[in-house]
Amino acid sequence: MSEKSKILCCNLRAEYDLKSLRVRKFGPERKSFGKTTIRLEADVVEVFPNADAVNEALRFLIRVVQNDQVSALTKQHHSSSEGADKTS
Predict the structure, then answer these.
(1) How many CB atoms lie within 10 A of CB 48?
(2) What is the rounded (10 degree) CA torsion for 15, 31, 46, 49?
(3) Domain spans in the chain, listed from the N-terminal domain onward
(4) 51 closest CA partner among 37, 33, 63
(5) H-assigned helices in the chain
(6) How confident is the model over 21-71, as pLDDT tens digits?
């Protein structure tokens, strides 16, 4: 045992069991608590300076896709009902 470990062990109370502690990793493998981390490619990072900018762009994209889906369904509904009108 090194001198530092001997000193550390002597200064700690008996109820502190450091052997049961788990080592927390640093870097990308580190566990995140309650948050999701997403890695962006360098070209994307150049366009979006922070998380708020990324979230704003993604929300806009979600609205565009949802509106396109609604428009496509509406057009499909109109074209099918027009076809029914022509046959009757």
Answers:
(1) 15
(2) -60
(3) 3-87
(4) 37
(5) 3-11, 42-47, 51-87
(6) 776 777 766 666 667 788 899 999 999 999 999 999 999 999 999 998 888
